[in-house]
Amino acid sequence: MSDSDDDVPTLSAHTLAALQEFYKETKVVTDHSAAPTDQFAVGAVEEDWRMSQFWYSDETATQLAEEAVREAGEGGRIACLSAPSVYQKLKQGVVDGSDRVSAVVLEYDRRFASYGEDFVFYDYNKPLSLPDSVSPHSFDIVLADPPYLSEECLSKVTQTIKYLSKGKVLLCTGAIMENLAKDLLDVKMCSFLPKHNRNLSNEFRCFVNYPSRLLSC
């Protein structure tokens, strides 16, 4: 035993608050993992900033999923390219018509492999390195959110988009990429303003290459 209470280490109020917040977040992640019904919740897989992951707000994920369903059409196929939040929203069964389309999520983060055959490993540095099961021009709409705001990244992701898409492209990226996106994909900036669970320092926008409700939202 200690000879004095002074020998017992104490934590500052700030440190205690930080620990409580950490345990709270840890509990949320654990609860998501434990409950099968929540496996498709936006945020069920925690963001990893090292992979430039920033999840959409629930409202934005819903609106983008609704757009994808409308444009894919009955029996359509949707590719969510580095956009797992939208894939998750599509699989929740809360978006009208989502049961009449199919979707895959192309992601570098192998934690999403828990989604089984819907998961396709994707490294934008190897834009055309895709499994044989992913046929060219086999998706009615490709919804893409390149992980980095750089010419190199968008140019490589564009190769993947053009390989996957039958024509329709919904691109979500920084406003600063507008001119390059137009040159590469012939897209227009939408009035719709996507939002994230965390505030981003760069203005974020959506772009489409087809007549869309998002253009005039």
Automatic annotation (TrEMBL):
Gene Ontology CC entries for this record: cytoplasm
Subcellular location: Cytoplasm
Keywords linked to the UniProt accession: Cytoplasm, Methyltransferase, Transferase
Record EC number: 2.1.1.-
Catalytic reactions of this protein: L-lysyl-[protein] + 3 S-adenosyl-L-methionine = N(6),N(6),N(6)-trimethyl-L-lysyl-[protein] + 3 S-adenosyl-L-homocysteine + 3 H(+)
Origin superkingdom: Eukaryota
One MF annotation (Gene Ontology) recorded for this entry: nucleic acid binding
One GO process term, biological-process aspect: methylation
Main location class: cytoplasm
EC class name: transferase
InterPro entries associated with the record: DNA_methylase_N6_adenine_CS, Efm5/EEF1AKMT1, Mlase_EEF1AKMT1/ZCCHC4, SAM-dependent_MTases_sf
HAMAP family in the record: Methyltr_EFM5 (MF_03187)
Family the entry assigns: Belongs to the class I-like SAM-binding methyltransferase superfamily. EFM5 family.
Function, in words: Protein-lysine methyltransferase that selectively catalyzes the trimethylation of EEF1A at 'Lys-79'.
Name of protein: EEF1A lysine methyltransferase 1
Organism encoding this protein: Astatotilapia calliptera (Eastern happy)
Lineage, highest ranks first: Eukaryota, Metazoa, Chordata, Craniata, Vertebrata
